[in-house]
Amino acid sequence: MPEVPYTLDGAAVLHQMLSVRWDKWHALLPPERDAVVREATEALEALEASGYSAAFSMLGHKGDLMLVHFRNSFDELNEVEMRLNALRLRDFFDITHSYLSVVELGLYASTSKMHAEFTGKGFAPHSPEWNEGVEETLERQRRAMAPRLWPQVPSNRYCCFYPMDRYRGEAKNWYTVPLAERQRMMHEHGMIGRRYAGSVKQIISGSIGFDKWEWGVDLFADDPIVFKKLIYEMRFDEVSAVYGLFGDFFVGLRFAAGQLGHFFAGKSPQWEAPAEIPTQPQE
After folding, report:
1. What pLDDT is stored for residue 283 in this prediction?
2. 40: Cβ contacts below 8 Å, ≥ 6 apart
3. Partner of 95 at 20 to 30 A CA spacing, among 85, 184, 192, 226?
């Protein structure tokens, strides 16, 4: 039996962590700074208006600004990246980190059900009949899960992003554990997250073949303490305690693009979630 769980893949995701060259910025005359900010504000406001891009003022030494983009494809992400690179503001930034991935929904339970169903019908794994049945099932699930596969950036004030892997050591290797065992562990892991559903929004993106780590995790909340509580509780869960490896954590405060001038004036930019974010489906 195939041991690889099927996935549903959606929006292309790019995180950009930027560090301001403050010495070069302060060397500009005030009228020049104003002109640079106006140009960048117009560009960011246009991106923000879609609901699929957002700016965050970062905490700590890993950068000053984090931009998060969800798009239909890597081509569209590249258009966003090139558009921002063309701004004069780009002269005053260093990109300290970036992360490329695609929104991913893992289908452990559905994979097991499909295996049992198609085996019961006498289909050989990866045969034409098998592949056709799998694709029909996945297409139904893509339609049902479209809002989760093509999300807008949640409107919460705080964002916590981190990359992660599953352990592949000599004694413990996630990828050699039978599918049924991985399904059990992931179900228990997911039950913890469900208890936080009212206070945190989570978006998982797959990055195998795209970036250094295997997954990226975005958490959005109006109270940053919930990040600590959720991640701490999950550390005691088997799938994290035994098989989880984590990269750096990046935390930022969302702000409206129109507040970019406050950011460069050394003031904490503010964010007031809109009453309704325009819905423009990406699919």
Report:
1. 44
2. 87, 88, 89, 260
3. 226
Tokens of 81: 């990246």
Domains contained in the chain, CATH given: 12-102+257-264 (3.30.70.1030)
pTM confidence score: 0.92
**162 has catalytic annotation:** yes
DSSP 8-state secondary structure symbol assigned to residue 201: E
CA distance 58 to 90: 17
Place of tokens 């701004």: 87
pLDDT band at 1 (very low <50, low <70, confident <90, very high): low
C-beta atoms surrounding 217 within 10 Å: 19
- pLDDT tens digits for range 167-192: 998 889 999 999 999 999 999 999 99
**C-alpha to C-alpha distance for 155 and 170, rounded to whole angstroms:** 42
Convert the pLDDT of each residue in 51-106 to its tens digit: 999 999 999 999 999 999 999 999 999 999 999 999 999 999 999 999 999 999 99
Distances (CA, A) of 255 to 37, 132, 154, 161: 15, 46, 12, 16
Contact indicator for 254, 56 with CB cutoff of 8 Å: yes
DSSP 5-69: PEEEEEEEEEEEEEEE-HHHHHTS-HHHHHHHHHHHHHHHHHHHHTTSEEEEEEPSTT-SEEEEE
The neighbour count for residue 117, using CB atoms within 10 Å, is: 12
**Catalytic residue, candidates 6, 99, 158, 162:** 162
Q: Which residue blocks in the chain are alpha helix, DSSP H?
A: 22-26, 30-49, 74-85, 108-120, 128-144, 146-149, 179-194, 225-235, 238-243, 260-264
